[in-house]
């Protein structure tokens, strides 16, 4: 039972009628690409490596895309030194993005091409500046300075009242 084109992919069932009826169902489909479910969070100026794998299979070709939810733009590593694509095995691909900027945030898709079809998955990249984690810290510093100033003001005001009552 050879499958020679993508139109033959799908679910097949077979029945055996003996004393008791037995049924078997087989699903033939293009292998799924695996990726991490969580978005990757990194900082401006850093580098990041996005990884896609296909367990127990080797795609004919891997292609990476970037963009928003509706438009996918292929990444051309030959025209842009910002990207490097490699993989240690045929069943995985790695996209390295160097010198990240806030413009690099968004969705990246890895696209695996098989003889009978294709499969793809997306990875969400979040790029933040170093100021983002500093904002809560700076807020706390401002609160402490304000509290110290209020305490000093109250102390000075209390001292002035004592001086006036002593006269």
UniProtKB/TrEMBL annotation:
<dbReference type="InterPro" id="IPR036179">
    <property type="entry name" value="Ig-like_dom_sf"/>
</dbReference>
<keyword id="KW-1133">Transmembrane helix</keyword>
<dbReference type="InterPro" id="IPR013098">
    <property type="entry name" value="Ig_I-set"/>
</dbReference>
<dbReference type="Pfam" id="PF07679">
    <property type="entry name" value="I-set"/>
</dbReference>
<keyword id="KW-0472">Membrane</keyword>
<protein>
    <submittedName>
        <fullName>Embigin-like protein</fullName>
    </submittedName>
</protein>
<keyword id="KW-0812">Transmembrane</keyword>
<feature type="transmembrane region" description="Helical">
    <location>
        <begin position="137"/>
        <end position="154"/>
    </location>
</feature>
<feature type="domain" description="Ig-like">
    <location>
        <begin position="31"/>
        <end position="126"/>
    </location>
</feature>
<dbReference type="InterPro" id="IPR007110">
    <property type="entry name" value="Ig-like_dom"/>
</dbReference>
<dbReference type="InterPro" id="IPR013783">
    <property type="entry name" value="Ig-like_fold"/>
</dbReference>
<dbReference type="InterPro" id="IPR003599">
    <property type="entry name" value="Ig_sub"/>
</dbReference>
